[in-house]
Amino acid sequence: MGEQQDPEKKEFLEKRSKGTSFEPDLIWEVLSRLPSKSIVQSRCVSKLCSSITTQPGFIRSFAARSSESPCLLILFKDKGNMFVFSLPQQQKHNLNSNNHVAVVDSYSMPCPGKYHFLSSESVHGLICVEEPSGNPQVWNPTTRRFSTLPKPARRWGDDDRVSFVGYDPVDCTYKVLSMPCRRPRQPRALTLGGGGEGGARWRVIKGLPEHAPFRRGARCVNGVLYYLAAPTLDDHRDNQFLVSFHVRSEKLSMMQVPWNLTRGLRQLLHCEGKLICVISNGGDDIIMWTLEDAEKHKWSYKHLLLPFSRRDPVARTRFSLKGVNAAGEFIYVPSALVNPFHVIYFDPKAVSFRRVVVDGVADYQFRRQNGFGDYPLRTSNAFSNHVETLMSL
């Protein structure tokens, strides 16, 4: 009922119904029930299908359906190709079910040069990509397209830039925030799709002193993009602070952090509606800082010993933290893929864990078809809470 009353959809269908023997509303309904792969393929079938599936109303409706079943996206690169696997992202273990999962979807595509995903997360289906020339890239795994964004001004800084994607759930708007890594600069923002104020132009975002971003890992939480930064690159270890970018208003804020003297890898994560920073020295313990109150800059502290070993000497792999599911479980993914392999879900509240066995990713048939030997397939990255989107840039 809600979709039928959508004025945007109604206007579109009324225009399309003139001069055609097809019923656009019927085609709309049929397309809305197809899986993403079929929807993307339909865009090549006819102009009407392409027009319908690129409508903002259709894209929003598809995104709402996709958000009900987030997945874990795992990829690795080899021989000039990138292999992408989509796995069901399990919630807390149901004792009456089998603790095995199989790949939902997989595909390979030409490896996009020397791109990497150090600063990336899947933000409502889009992933930001970094590459040496400094051109920001955005990857949509659903449509299998890499989109090159306009390059910021030449005089802005060096080519070594870091870019983050943010998403506003109110206006359903994506924005990219970008800045040089090697020297302090004010960020610039770009609205994806050309919508919103400023269109497809980079805008300088003021409100804070010039600063250098910490490359590894921003997080978008409820329409606010968070990333770590420092006054200069040399201060990254001992003088960090947290920057928040309100995607809708484009307001920048800065917050001091309580872990500056703590050594280890720092990861920002989104856990049950709150921002957390997980610090690890590579052992089997972690430190958790949870932002309890952003306005009062109030953090809580917890030191946990993991009830499992992050090293697996048999499979010759190591488990790395890649995200948090909706139940608040930390997701640990192996650095190398064998058949079968395990994904570990760790509950920091109960200090317990469970293993999910994944079949069919690095089996004999897959290796033979792609010319791989018996060696482990090294994981390039993994993205938790990935949802499919039909967003075109």
Automatic annotation (TrEMBL):
Which InterPro entries does the entry mention?
F-box-assoc_dom_typ3, F-box-assoc_interact_dom, F-box-like_dom_sf, F-box_dom
In this chain the F-box domain maps to: 24-58
Q: Which residues does the UniProt record annotate as the domain F-box associated beta-propeller type?
A: 71-387
Look up the domain of life of the source: Eukaryota
Concerning PANTHER family, the annotation shows: BNAA05G37150D PROTEIN-RELATED, F-BOX DOMAIN-CONTAINING PROTEIN
Kindly provide the name given to this protein in its UniProt entry: Uncharacterized protein
Species annotation: Eutrema salsugineum
Q: What does the organism's lineage look like at the top? A: Eukaryota, Viridiplantae, Streptophyta, Embryophyta, Tracheophyta
